[in-house]
Amino acid sequence: QVQLVESGGGLVQAGASLRLSCATSGRTFSNGAMGWFRQAPGNEREFVAALSWSGGRTDYAESVKGRFTISRDNAKNTLYLQMNSLKPEDTAAYYCAANPWGTSRNPGNYNIWGQGTQVTVSS
């Protein structure tokens, strides 16, 4: 069973950068993918970015494209989300998740989730 633990959230000003980390343990899926989602109070959980395990295929939400970068360090079993040029509308709890079937924007396709880390961007 894969376990996920996020870290790296915090309170920053608009325009700043943060790097979120997601430490993974347990079995991974050779054909699967990892993703980042976020959820602001009163909103549904929304897709941010995804990365396939095998081919390094990436996908980004339009709202973060060009500002956020998803990556992984296999040696450290860690997934990252580098967030640059942060905006107040990026404020949310950020979650990493595992999908055994491949990259997807649908949170319903991810069956393992971390506990989340809060990102707050002040204007």
Quickly list its features.
0% helix, four-stranded antiparallel sheet, mainly beta
Written description of the protein model:
It contains no helices and eleven strands. The model has no long low-confidence stretch (mean pLDDT 93). The protein is mainly β. Strands 2, 4, 5, 6, 9, 10 and 11 form a seven-stranded mixed β-sheet that branches. A four-stranded antiparallel β-sheet has the order 1-3-8-7, with no helix packed on it.
Q: What is the H/E order?
A: EEEEEEEEEEE
Indicate the structural class: mainly beta
How would you sum up the global shape?
globular
Give the low-confidence spans. none
Q: What is the helix content? A: under 10%
Strand content: over 45%
Q: What is the β-strand count?
A: 11
Rounded radius of gyration (Å): 13 Å
**How would a textbook summarize the main sheet?**
7 strands, mixed
Determine the mean pLDDT.
Answer: 93
What is the tally of helical segments? 0
- Tell me the span between the first and last alpha carbons: 40 Å
Query: What is the subunit organization of this protein?
Result: single chain
